[in-house]
Design a protein that fits this description.
single chain, 422 residues, alpha/beta, 43% helix
């Protein structure tokens, strides 16, 4: 497909999505829920077809030399397809945010002013190898009254197309427009460039993938982007922290999973408790295969570690590597987070509630925690049911983005014949 034909194709997708978005925005909760439940049923019925498509993608990925972690993300099984189907049903069971009116108050003039929640419109999601994102993203967009255009990684092309067929069958059975969910049918990489500049028809772009993909889209898009670039998450162990709890939380924040954006990458420890906490904690981490990189003060306490460099404080490892720094007080800890953090998730372990409240107020991150592992920064754990990603932006959505994050609010006014005087 040449560039002109590709531009025409992407423009048509946008045009269809915009038309479908108006129909989905006014669809009943029952119709949207039915579409999701029907899609789940069709996905189960078509499990073998989806698995055959997935095998084709896996063969291509192995031939192209992708690593085992990539292959793992790409691989589907009977169990994972059942999880995808259950995920659609769980989205259907969530409260519908569309049409909700809040903050209704009568003004001195007699009018009543409130806010009504409504869809964003058309959302484009660009993502990499995980085929489950096709169903998750489509389900969240539909339930929140939005149309969506999905561009999955070319490595999962055949799998994504088969999952999309079940979604379309669900829409058709619920008498909703099939164009409400569109999956690009081309692997041409230039399609992304066309999609992220289609501001006439697309309202929001959500990239899900590696830092390179997100940086490119953030730089080139002419449409608002909901995203986070890095997950440089910190845990600060304060002087008053319970040492057993601090060790338990820090270990979990680092080792529960290494490759997630809410995994701790830097540990900050108050100098008054560093000698008590670091030896057992570092021994525990090293025993689990974690490479600990320490500043000079920490290395005096745990000398068998590796010297940290300035670059370590600004690195999202996504692997069993942890940087450790001893700080004089909470101010130094928060200064470090302000300088090197990524506004994703940061936690304090403390029994001093003045310090806890200072940390909550002063640390500028999308999730700030007291006495809990950073691994809880997740839509499911927050009670959102599901998430389409994490946002570290400051406008509109921030933190895990669920159904509410895919909507906005408009003012609504109820009058009783009032006119403005003067």
């Amino acid at each position: 497909m040449n560039l002109t034909d590709l531009n025409t194709h992407i423009t048509e997708l946008g045009r269809h999505a915009r038309a479908a978005s108006r129909l989905v925005a006014k669809a009943s909760t029952l119709a949207k829920n039915n579409a999701l439940v029907f899609a789940a049923h069709h996905l189960r019925d078509n499990t073998e077809i989806v698995l055959q498509a997935n095998l084709k993608d896996l063969d291509n990925a192995q031939r192209l030399g992708f690593d085992s972690a990539f292959i793992d993300r790409l691989t589907l099984s009977h169990k994972s397809i059942e999880h995808i189907a259950v995920g659609l049903e769980q989205i259907a069971a969530l409260p519908d945010p569309v049409g909700e009116i809040t903050d209704l108050a009568r003004r001195p003039s007699g009018i009543e002013v409130g806010k009504m929640r409504g869809p964003l419109g058309v959302i484009a999601i660009i993502y990499e190898a995980r085929p489950n994102v096709t169903a998750d993203a489509a389900g969240l967009c539909l339930k929140s009254g939005n149309a969506c255009i999905l561009r999955g990684g070319s490595e999962a092309f055949h799998t994504n197309q088969e999952i999309a067929k079940s979604l379309h069958l669900g829409l058709r059975q619920a008498q909703l427009p099939e164009k409400a969910i569109q999956v690009l049918e081309t692997t041409d990489r230039a399609a992304v460039g066309e999609l992220i500049q289609l501001n006439k028809f697309i309202d929001v772009i959500i990239p899900r993938g590696g830092k390179g993909l997100i940086e490119r889209i953030s730089k080139e898009a002419t449409i608002p982007v909901i995203k986070h670039l890095d997950g440089i998450c910190h845990v600060f162990i304060d002087a008053s922290a319970d040492s057993a709890m601090a060790i338990r939380i820090a270990d979990n924040a680092k080792t529960q999973r290494y490759g997630t954006c809410n995994t701790m990458e830097t540990l900050l420890v108050h100098q008054d408790v560093a000698s008590e906490i670091l030896p057992p904690l570092v021994a525990q981490l090293i025993d689990k295969g974690v490479e600990c990189r320490t500043d000079p003060l920490a290395r005096q306490i745990v000398p068998h570690t590796i010297a940290a460099t300035e670059d370590d404080w600004a690195t999202e490892y996504l692997s069993p590597i942890l940087s450790i720094k001893v700080v004089a007080n909470i101010d130094e800890a928060m200064d470090h987070i302000a300088r090197f953090g990524s506004h994703h998730t940061d936690a304090i372990i403390t029994n001093d509630w003045n310090n806890a409240n200072r940390f909550l107020r002063e640390v500028d991150s999308s999730s700030v925690m007291v006495n809990a592992s950073t691994r809880f920064a997740d839509g499911f754990e927050y009670g959102l049911g599901a998430e389409i990603g994490i946002s570290t932006d400051k406008l509109h959505a921030r933190g895990p983005v669920g159904l509410e994050g895919l909507t906005n609010q408009k003012y609504v006014v109820f009058g009783h014949g009032e006119i403005r005087a003067g």
